[in-house]
């Protein structure tokens, strides 16, 4: 409490007021005027009526009335932590990103979440988990906004409102909360069979992680790395937990839902408080940046595909350590704003059509959720690099900009000269060729195979993991009211594997249908099984 932050009366002043909240020697109203009492309204006589002229009463209640902001439209329930990312420098040959250079240490903020439940829902429901990381790099903010499942439900962002509407609770009764035991969910994922792969991961043990600390994370899309010499490489990002990958079993998840709905957020906070800092290695799978953007026949622009680790090993490039809990949930965990378009030099996007829609959606939703366009100024979102933008005014503007009107070139403001170019360290979109084509809405033919990759996942599972998957499909589908949806789901399962289909059909008391497409001839990928997961841990 230096003299510049404390008034002569001992009260904190200016920007430090927020930091020092509840620390002054007397209570004030929002204007800094000292209060005599905060427990009794001003009344005309001890038994009232209460007087409208009581500004403290009106201010206190007015502010309380506006304490809530809209929860995220998806991923509303989450928990977060601060940490550091220590680069090994092993990616330096393929990217010029400064935070991936040797010995670089970068502060980070990571938010984990469920997708479908509301802010107050339970932690251990069967769902995908978000794994979003904000790197406060010396070159600006880089966000890696991923999930604990490496594929997505849909291939084109235009279906995102539809898949979420189908997964959220029914509009009339607002049930079920945060579960996939749901007619509209199963209707969607069986009519849009591109969702088969993600749904299978959801029904596997990955859908009920034991802890955020034991989850893998995936950037899902293929991104493009840009090296110092301009060379480009396609890349998929992976987070590998040092504790290994572990899940709950369904019965545990159900009991914990009742006993401790905050199980995952408590586990994360307690571990950090106890000094058992959760750690993940960031790994990259790299692929040549060929014009067709495929790797061994796998379309890298299709976000329902993985590339098996046996075909392209994951190389570790740095270590993430979470070592500090947020001090204020609202200011940090709730107000953090991630965006897949927050990129730094050395990392670029590809033409994945799902990624394109995300580039619009996050910025757009945050204008509503965080009350206007100035949310990058919130402390948790502020870059740790200098900001010199030309964005002005707007709701909740906290900067006091000075000088001439912002435009460039500008001969009046004496500001920095504006020069663009690769040698300035600016973010330059990599000059990849755009294929000559005509406008179409159809998906490419290479997006049409919806069953080979799910079959590979199924074949990679150990017997106990298969048993859990069969149990999950049987339980969730048994909650559907519509028989036709259960039957359609079995037709989808038949195209993954006849044994899986037959077991679930028996559980549901229905006949098992025949496959409608030839079963894919694929090899198992041992790295997909949690039992066989062999990432080095120490
Ligand atoms: C939020 C991941 C696809 C729209 C999130 C969050 C994660 C995530 C982790 C939570 C961020 C946080 O903790 O604050 C993903 C992944 C996707 C995907 C991995 C596919 C690969 C999409 C698509 C759209 C979308 C296609 C829309 C077209 C949103 C929105 C939010 C969100 C609107 C809320 C953001 C906020 O309020 O700040 N997503 N998402 N997502 N996602 Fe996605």
TrEMBL record:
Its cofactor is heme. The keyword Metal-binding applies. It comes from the Bacteria. Keywords: Heme, Hydrogen peroxide, Iron, Metal-binding, Oxidoreductase, Peroxidase. Its EC number is 1.11.1.6. GO terms for molecular function: catalase activity. The keyword rRNA-binding does not apply. It catalyses: 2 H2O2 = O2 + 2 H2O. Residues 2-17 have a biased composition (Polar residues). Residues 28-416 form the Catalase core domain. Decomposes hydrogen peroxide into water and oxygen; serves to protect cells from the toxic effects of hydrogen peroxide. Belongs to the catalase family. HPII subfamily. This is Catalase. It comes from Streptomyces galilaeus.
């Amino acid at each position: 409490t230096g003299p510049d932050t404390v008034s002569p009366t001992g009260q904190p002043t200016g920007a430090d007021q927020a930091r020092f909240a509840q620390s002054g020697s007397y209570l004030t109203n929002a204007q800094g005027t000292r209060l005599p009492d905060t427990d009794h309204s001003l009344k005309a006589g001890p038994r009232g009526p209460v007087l409208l002229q009581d500004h403290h009463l009106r201010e206190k209640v007015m502010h309380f009335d506006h304490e809530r902001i809209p929860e995220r439209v998806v991923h509303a329930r989450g928990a977060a932590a601060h940490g550091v990312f220590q680069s090994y420098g092993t990616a330096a040959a393929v990217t010029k990103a400064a935070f991936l250079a040797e010995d670089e240490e970068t502060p980070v903020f990571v938010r984990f979440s469920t997708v479908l439940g509301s802010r107050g829902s339970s932690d251990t429901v069967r769902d995908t988990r978000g794994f979003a990381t904000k790197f406060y790099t010396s070159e600006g903010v880089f966000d890696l906004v991923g999930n604990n499942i490496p594929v997505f439900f849909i291939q084109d962002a235009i279906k995102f409102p539809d898949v979420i509407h189908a997964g959220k609770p029914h509009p009339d009764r607002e049930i079920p909360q945060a579960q996939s035991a749901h007619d509209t969910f199963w209707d969607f994922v069986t009519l849009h069979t591109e969702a088969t792969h993600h749904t299978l991961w959801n029904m596997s043990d990955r859908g009920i992680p034991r802890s955020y600390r034991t989850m893998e994370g995936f950037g899902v899309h293929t991104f493009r790395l840009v090296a110092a010499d301009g060379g480009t490489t396609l890349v998929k990002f992976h987070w590998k937990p040092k504790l290994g990958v572990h899940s709950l079993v369904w019965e545990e998840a159900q009991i914990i839902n009742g006993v401790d709905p905050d199980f995952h957020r408590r586990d994360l906070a307690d571990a950090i408080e106890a000094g058992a800092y959760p750690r993940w290695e960031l790994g990259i799978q790299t692929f040549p940046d060929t014009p067709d953007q495929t790797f061994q026949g796998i379309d890298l622009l299709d976000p329902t595909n993985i590339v098996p680790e046996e075909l392209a090993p994951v190389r570790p490039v740095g270590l993430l350590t979470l070592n500090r809990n947020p001090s204020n949930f609202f200011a940090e965990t709730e107000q953090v704003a991630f965006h897949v378009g927050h990129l730094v030099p050395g990392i670029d996007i590809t033409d994945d059509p799902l990624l394109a829609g995300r580039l619009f959606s996050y910025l757009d939703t945050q204008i509503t959720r965080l009350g206007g366009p100035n949310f990058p100024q919130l402390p948790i979102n502020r870059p740790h690099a200098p900001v010199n933008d030309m964005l002005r005014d707007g709701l909740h503007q906290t900067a006091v900009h000075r000088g001439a009107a912002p435009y460039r070139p500008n001969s009046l403001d004496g500001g920095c000269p504006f020069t663009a170019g690769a040698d300035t360290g600016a973010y330059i979109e990599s000059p990849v060729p755009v294929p000559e084509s005509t406008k179409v809405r159809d998906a490419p033919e290479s997006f049409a195979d919806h069953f080979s990759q799910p079959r590979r996942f199924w074949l990679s599972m150990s017997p106990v993991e298969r048993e859990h998957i069969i149990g999950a499909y049987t339980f969730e589908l048994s909650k559907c009211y519509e028989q036709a949806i259960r039957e359609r789901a079995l037709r989808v399962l038949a195209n993954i594997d006849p044994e899986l289909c037959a077991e679930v059909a028996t559980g549901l008391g229905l006949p098992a249908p025949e496959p409608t497409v030839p079963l894919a001839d694929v090899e198992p990928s041992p790295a997909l099984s949690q039992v066989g997961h062999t990432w080095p841990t120490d």
